[in-house]
């Protein structure tokens, strides 16, 4: 099957204290960065199957 088209993913690097800042009070800096990292990983994994 031919693959036509492209998908661009634009994301910030999941750095503690800089990503998902609204979740820092709930998850902490490391926790919010880990969540951002996991979410980005899920997106990239899903797209790798396209």
Please state the overall shape, judged from the principal axes of the Cα atoms.
Answer: elongated
Low-confidence stretches: none
Mean pLDDT: 93
**Structural class designation:** mainly alpha
CA radius of gyration is 14 Å
Order of helices and strands: H
Distance between the termini: 11 Å
Could you tell me the strand content as a percent range? under 5%
Instruction: Give a count of the beta strands, DSSP E runs of length 2 or more.
Output: 0
Keywords:
50 residues; mainly alpha; 50% helix; 0% strand
Quick recap:
The chain has about 50 residues and is an all-alpha fold.
Q: How is this structure best described in words?
A:
InterPro entries: Nucleotide-diphossugar_trans. With 50 residues, the protein is mainly alpha-helical. It has one domain (16-50). It is 50% helix and 0% strand. The chain contains 1 helix and no strands. The chain has one helix at 24-48.
Give the secondary structure arrangement, pairings included.
Elements lengths: L23 H25 L2
């Amino acid at each position: 099957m031919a693959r036509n088209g492209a998908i661009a993913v634009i994301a910030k690097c999941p750095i503690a204290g800089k990503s998902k800042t609204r979740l820092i009070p709930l998850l902490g800096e490391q926790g919010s960065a880990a969540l951002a990292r996991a979410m980005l990983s899920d997106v990239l994994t899903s797209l790798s199957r396209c």
